[in-house]
Please model this.
Amino acid sequence: MHNKRIKTALISVYHKQGLNEIIKDLQRLGVEIISTGGTYKYITELGVSATKVEDITDYPSIFGGRVKTLHPKIFGGILMRTYADTEEANKYNIKPIDLVIVDLYPFEQAVAAGAKHQEIIEKIDIGGISLIRAAAKNYEDVLVISHKNQYTQLLEILKNGGQTTIEQRKDFAAQAFMISSHYDTKIYQYLNEQPLRSLKISEINSYPLRYGENPHQQAAFFGNINDIFTQLHGKQLSYNNLLDADAAVNIISEFSEPTVAIIKHTNPCGLASDSNLTQAWKKALAGDPESAFGGIIVTNCQVDKSTAEEINKLFFEIIIAPSYEKEALDILKQKKNRRILVLNKFPDSPYQVRSTLNGYLYQEKDLKNETPEDLQFVTKKQPDKRQIQDLLFANKIVKHLKSNAIAIVKDKQLIGTGMGQPSRVDALRQAIAKAHRFGFELKDAVMASDAFFPFADSVEIAYKEGITAIIQPGGSIRDKDSIDFCNTHNIAMVFTGIRHFKH
Model:
């Protein structure tokens, strides 16, 4: 394969920032420039001569600019192979084009800005993406520049005489297909009204991570993390940090009153709500002060000075909050490596994807949040107002624990959790043992289960510990056994009809 010197360039761009220096270098090298519309005007206003596409095709720009470059004399010049097509190109008076500088209409940005539908449709590029793909396909003869971020690399090539290697052209071609496929994916996602018909994911923002879940695993994050977080302090977020942060923002989004959650290995190990944020922190920490060490703290309120002083007594990796008082921030910044994040917004995708076997599992997120109106009162004893609040509170938490899962709550404080157990009885025993270990009295506490009880044994264990109200989905063929036990022992139990497995 051969090196090539740039002789003819086609330039048609939406974003013109940074283009002037390239134009001047092309002029210096004696490169013939072909251009269209606004780009042609921009080039000639720099005092550089250029040829209009219309003068080559003998066709004007038509249909409101929708058709400008779609012509054999343009695409032939890009797609012709010097080793095979020169004779035919000469026959039809087609001149080779060996540099294509084309970007795409800002479709993704128009969608993000909430533009009207017709305006978004007009941002679907046809000629631009066709030129990019044609040039990338013929990378043996053509250099394609498909994004303004590549201008610096192009300038280096031009400063060195405009010679390109096959390796350079191939790399730019790969980048071009990355950009074009990403563009098409975003259009598909916008137009598609059947999300489960096919799975198309494209993220071109890559953040290399030091390593993955373990040091011997390579990893990267794809997406725009800055949309969700602004990092004010501390080290770069790691793979495990990002997993825990995702769990943290998902669970805190469930609560409206002042709430603090402590996350460890994606599970909440402490969580409490209180009108006073400092008290909410103390209650959350009391739920499991051992596991809280080195965890992630998240709250839905501005962190004030007094709360920061209490939090600062614990070693933790990350704190996430919508804002911080200046005095609080000064306190939290005392640890150099501590990551301090501002939560800008909650992730807005209603779907989640997971790689599995040789494919992917794709599903709607579990966004169901039960209300008092959703509760089915199935026992003679009905929960009072305080118990209903605690039951719904516990149900929000159990949704975010790995199955099988149990959450025990008292006065909007998580006091016992059992998660990831092979049986529901195991999860309950784990939750009870944890509550006892940290000195909690289970009398008059409530319990939530992420799925139904297949037998009455869990209800019996809960009763012996003093738990007086239970929330669960129901749906077992032996629901009556659990209901009968509750009726005999004066326990309130409600069904939701909704299971919250999390594997």
About this structure: The mean pLDDT is 94.
